[in-house]
Design brief:
121 residues; 2,3-Dihydroxybiphenyl 1,2-Dioxygenase, domain 1; 5-stranded mixed β-sheet; 4-stranded mixed β-sheet
């Protein structure tokens, strides 16, 4: 079996601009119902929905070995990183967990919460 990740979107053209153009994911297929991408061998299916109420938690995230570089790269492309009240985040918006992992959150054009995580071990 292979993992498929699903992300809802109300505008597939706008989603493609973000997921392909900003994040750099590879487009595999475009249909009237979905934008199919590939991220490091995993299929990401951005599915057309008529309406969307974004959830207040991460729905899709990436593990990285260079979180500061990845955050700076996306910030340079206009992506705003989310800051959460009560969480001590550095100047880039990266939070360090008590165990030493680092996490940064951002949103896609539909308001879906996405994240980068750099694990300490």
């Amino acid at each position: 079996m292979s993992l498929i990740a699903f992300v809802p979107s109300t505008d597939l053209a706008r989603a493609r601009t973000f997921y392909e153009g900003v994040l750099g994911l590879e487009v595999v297929e475009v249909t009237p119902f979905a934008l199919v991408l590939r991220s490091d061998g995993v299929m990401v299916r951005v599915t057309q929905v008529p309406e969307l109420e974004p959830r207040p938690f991460t729905i899709l995230g990436w593990s990285t070995d260079a979180i500061a570089d990845d955050v700076a790269r996306l910030a340079g492309r206009g992506v705003a990183f989310v800051r959460y009240e009560g969480m001590e985040q550095d100047e880039l918006g990266i939070w360090t967990t008590p165990g030493g992992d680092q996490v940064a959150w951002f949103a896609d054009p539909d308001g879906n919460t996405l994240s980068f995580t750099q694990f300490s071990a």
